[in-house]
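quick q for whoever's on today - can somebody do inverse folding on this one?? i tried earlier but teh output was garbage lol. tokens:
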């Protein structure tokens, strides 16, 4: 039994050290988004503080530095209330490097400060499982609120990416998805603990130790992901335009609510743009962006976006890739081209930069996969 306790303690201590190591790794990386780096490093440090909060008192009790705690519960870990704010601000600055840290953002940290002061003031008080359970419910609810807020941020960011780029597969947001899922799993497990706190006593702090162990394991997963995937600490590209998570139609109506361009003007601009796309074929450039196309057409980015959004009812991403799909189909219908090239090489020739984007766009435009379309041509 003692060996098992020693192993668990080692895992937990190493998890706290891992969090600090990751924070140093993040801060030491040069030439990246400094505000996002600071928030992510602070998040990793808060993980370490939380883990230490779980094992240090037990360690000090075991070696006789402090007396054993009486039966009952202390209030929840205040550092847990830092996870949501730091994670949200990290994603906020990562997807919007131009944003500034403002004083109102400090309000995100008030719950943690309040719980810290309250815990210190009542440090000699033993709380019932019910009160401790209610505090943990607040901690868990706060994290779910922040996870939803991060989801809205990423949804809006993806929408805005499609207004600026014709290929977004290289813009890797898998790290955010991984982080959100990991935190969601951790707090789902914590949720199971709450009824146990509300309806039972745990004088030996087994639930506290279990929560600490789970968090330590989560830090290991962050560390493994960070060391095996270099894109994690790389900021996505800066983008033009406000981010919105509104549905497509509502988003367009809201965005151009105060536009000075009439329907007729939009129609004329769209005709000129379509003519340019067909004659100059800028979509063959795999690195084509909205700013590049606007410069080529001699119009502003805003007017280009409005012409595509309101006139064609599409985002830049869908508009450009629609032309690429038509080009791929034209190439496919040439028997010689089809015989001499793979589907992917035809896609690259048409301007696509990734297989995933090609397959997705082809299916959306035709209702068929590229292979199914080829089979239809051969029959």
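ok took a stab at it. sequence:
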């Amino acid at each position: 039994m003692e060996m098992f306790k020693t192993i668990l303690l080692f895992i937990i201590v190493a998890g706290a050290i891992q969090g600090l190591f990751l924070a140093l790794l993040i801060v030491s990386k040069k030439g990246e988004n400094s505000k996002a780096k600071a928030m992510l490093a602070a998040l990793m440090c808060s993980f370490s503080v939380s883990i230490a909060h779980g094992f240090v008192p037990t360690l000090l009790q075991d070696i006789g530095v402090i007396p054993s705690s009486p039966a009952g519960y202390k209030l929840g870990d205040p550092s847990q209330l830092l996870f949501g704010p730091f994670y949200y601000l990290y994603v906020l600055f990562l997807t919007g490097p131009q944003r500034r840290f403002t004083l109102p953002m400090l309000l995100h940290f008030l719950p943690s400060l309040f719980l810290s002061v309250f815990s210190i003031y009542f440090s000699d008080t033993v709380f019932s499982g019910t009160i401790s359970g209610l505090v943990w419910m607040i901690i868990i609810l706060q994290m779910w609120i922040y996870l939803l807020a991060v989801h809205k941020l990423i949804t809006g960011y993806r929408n805005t990416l499609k207004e600026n780029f014709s290929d977004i597969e290289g813009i890797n947001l898998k790290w955010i998805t991984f982080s959100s899922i990991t935190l969601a799993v951790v707090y789902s497990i914590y949720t199971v603990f709450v009824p146990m706190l509300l309806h039972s006593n745990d004088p030996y702090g087994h639930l506290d130790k279990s929560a600490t162990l789970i968090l330590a394991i989560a830090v290991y997963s962050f560390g493994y992901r960070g060391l095996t995937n270099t894109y994690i600490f790389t900021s996505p590209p800066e983008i033009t335009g406000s981010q919105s998570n509104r549905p497509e139609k509502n988003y367009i109506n809201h965005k151009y609510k105060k536009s000075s361009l009439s329907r007729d003007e939009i129609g004329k601009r769209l005709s000129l743009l379509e003519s340019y796309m067909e004659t100059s074929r800028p979509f063959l450039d795999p690195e084509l962006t909205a700013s590049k196309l606007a410069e080529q057409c001699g119009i502003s980015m805003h007017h280009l976006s409005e012409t595509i959004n309101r006139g064609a009812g599409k985002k830049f991403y869908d508009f450009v890739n629609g032309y690429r799909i038509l080009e791929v189909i034209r190439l496919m219908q040439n028997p010689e081209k089809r015989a001499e090239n793979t589907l992917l090489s035809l896609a690259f020739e048409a301007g696509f930069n990734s297989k995933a984007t090609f397959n997705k766009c082809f299916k959306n435009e035709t209702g068929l996969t590229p292979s199914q379309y080829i089979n239809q041509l051969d029959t």
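fwiw The domain at 258-378 is CATH 1.10.10.60 (Arc Repressor Mutant, subunit A). also The chain has 16 helices and no strands. so keep that in mind when u check it
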